[in-house]
Amino acid sequence: MPSRRLDDDVAYLTGASSGIGLAIAHELARAGASLVLGARRADRLQAAALAIRGEVPGARVFAHPLDVNDAASRAAWSAAAEAAAGPCSILVHNAGLALGRRSVAEEDLREADTMLDTNVRSVIALSRALLPGMIARNRGDVVLIASVAGSEPYAMGAAYCASKAAVQAFGRALRAELLGKDIRVLT
């Protein structure tokens, strides 16, 4: 549970229709944040929004489909979110993709590219789109969901491990870049 009430916060979450993303959304709603949920499957996204509203009476939840790998989808999601819920004060990068375990020699490069787009490039792109508003307001939180695989890589998962190491490095670099601002970066 967050250590403070978040009644004035608007949390934008990617990969919010299941798993870790949905669990984070529930916690943020219980702490009072307004939610903007994004995920590829509209049916699961709407079910997630209904579940949160059912568990947290009065929860403010806006759900809009989002393909983090598509620039037009990211732009439409961000614009619709701001119009419906307000500017982002908490950005949770949860959307992620893991492929089956394969050796580097067997890796399907198209699948690896999709994984890198999902796990790394979308994080950079959405941060680039939403951070200027946080910086202008000198307020916000950026939450990056990484994996121990980024710091403890394993055989048969090199591309995934590399993607999560990139997320960890991005978080450290972003934290350094935002020193002196009231914006936290959590990985």
How would you describe what is shown here?
By secondary structure, the protein is α/β, with parallel strands linked by helices. It is 48% helix and 16% strand. The protein has a six-stranded parallel beta sheet, with helices on both faces. It is globular and about 50 Å long. The mean pLDDT is 96.
Strand segment tally: 6
State the separation between the terminal residues, measured CA to CA.
Answer: 16 Å
Largest beta sheet, briefly? Answer: 6 strands, parallel
- The rounded Rg comes to 16 Å
What does the average pLDDT come to?
Answer: 96
Broad shape: globular
Number of helices: 5
Structural class: alpha/beta
Kindly estimate the percentage of residues that lie in beta strands according to DSSP: 15-25%
- Strand arrangement in the largest pleated sheet: 3-2-1-4-5-6
Q: Tell me the helix content.
A: 40-55%
Which spans of ≥5 residues are poorly predicted at pLDDT below 50? none
Sequence of secondary-structure elements: EHEHEHEHEHE
